[in-house]
């Protein structure tokens, strides 16, 4: 079924939990999966060799959208990641009491799209505590 890369940025561990559930679900569906904390990745050629790339990022800031801090270098360098023509899906945790609920998810989808990725029009935006069942269902739908 191919190879998937799951890259996540998470400050308090919520998006990390979702990333782990997503990775396990894809494995259960027969994919070979590599799970990476964004703090340890470099943008250059990141997507090379993968059939599917999933980005997970929480949202910070108040009036403005701020990406989870470890994710910012990847976002800024995303043009070097080799996303053109790749299937990409985006997920993240947030809090709907903020103006830009999961705004980081929207920002990453938009940029990946601009770079020619085939962005799955099905973002996963989790409000509050991660819902593992929701994450499992989403990962299956992405496939
Ligand atoms: C100072 C602060 C600002 C935040 N800003 C937003 C926001 O603009 N939009 C949003 O959806 N969530 C916002 N959140 C909620 C976090 O994204 C949420 O707690 C999330 O679960 C954190 O995920 P993480 O543990 O993966 O980093 C904010 C939280 C804090 C503490």
Topology:
Elements: E1 3-9, H1 14-28, E2 32-37, E3 52-57, E4 59-60, E5 66-67, H2 72-76, E6 87-94, H3 103-114, E7 118-119, E8 124-127, H4 132-142
Parallel strand pairs: 1-2, 1-3, 3-6, 6-7, 6-8
Antiparallel strand pairs: 4-5
Helix pairs in contact: 1-4
The structure holds flavin mononucleotide.
Flavin mononucleotide binds at residues 10-15, 58-61, 68, 93-95, 98, 100-103.
User: What is the H level of CATH, i.e. the homologous superfamily?
Assistant: Flavodoxin domain
Please state the second-level CATH architecture.
3-Layer(aba) Sandwich
Structural class: alpha/beta
The SSE order reads: EHEEEEHEHEEH
- CATH topology (level 3) name: Rossmann fold
Low-confidence stretches: none
């Amino acid at each position: 079924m191919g190879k998937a890369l799951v890259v996540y940025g998470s400050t308090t561990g919520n998006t990390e939990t979702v990333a782990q559930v997503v990775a396990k679900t894809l494995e259960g569906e027969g994919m070979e999966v590599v799970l990476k904390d964004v703090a340890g990745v470099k943008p250059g050629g990141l997507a090379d060799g993968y059939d599917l790339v999933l980005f997970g990022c929480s949202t910070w800031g108040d009036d403005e959208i701020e990406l989870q801090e470890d994710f910012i270098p990847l976002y800024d360098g995303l043009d070097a990641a080799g996303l053109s023509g790749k299937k990409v899906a985006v997920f993240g945790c947030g809090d709907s009491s903020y103006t830009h609920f999961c705004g980081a998810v929207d920002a990453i989808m938009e940029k990946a799209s601009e770079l020619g990725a085939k962005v799955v029009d099905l973002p996963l935006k989790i409000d509050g505590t991660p819902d593992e069942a929701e994450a499992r269902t989403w990962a299956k739908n992405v496939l």
